[in-house]
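hiii, so i know i said id send this last week but things got crazy w the move. better late than never?? heres the sequnce for the chain we talked about at the cafe, plus the structure i predicted for it. fair warning i was half asleep when i ran it
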Amino acid sequence: MSEPFSVRITVRGYETDVQGHVNQSVYINYAEHARWSLLQAAGISQTGLIAKGVGPVALETTIRYRRELLAGDEIDVTCVFEWTGGKTFRIRQDMVKTDGTVAAELVAVGGLLDLKERRMVANPQDYFKELATDPSLFGI
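okay and structure toks below
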C-alpha cells in the first residue's frame, strides 16, 4: 500500500488549554481538516457533494491521546478510508509529530446522507468514486 494521505498542521497557541497542550476538541478539527483536504485533493468539493444530493455525516469518533501537543508543534495528520460495505465507512487517522512520535490516533465512522430523504445512502464508496477525479486516494 502507498503512503496514506497526509496534511501538515502547525499547532496555534489559541488551540491550547490551561495546561499548555492542545484542547481535546481541537483534535476533531485537525481530523476534519485532513478529511476535507483529502476530498479536495481527490477532486471532490462541498458544492459537488450538494449537487449530487449527498453530504458526509459523522456517526462516531474515538480518539486515543498518546503524547501531548504544544503550541508551535508541527504534525502530519493522515487519513485512510476503509470501506466496510453497507451504509458506513471508517476513517483511520494518525496525528504524528515531525520526529515520528504519534500524538493521537483517531477512528471515525461516517456515511453519506441523502439530503432530500434524510437517510443514509447505500454504498457511499460509489458516490466518492463517481465524484472523484482521483478515487485512488480513497482506496477505491
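btw The two ends are 12 Å apart (CA to CA). thought thatd interest u
miss u guys!!
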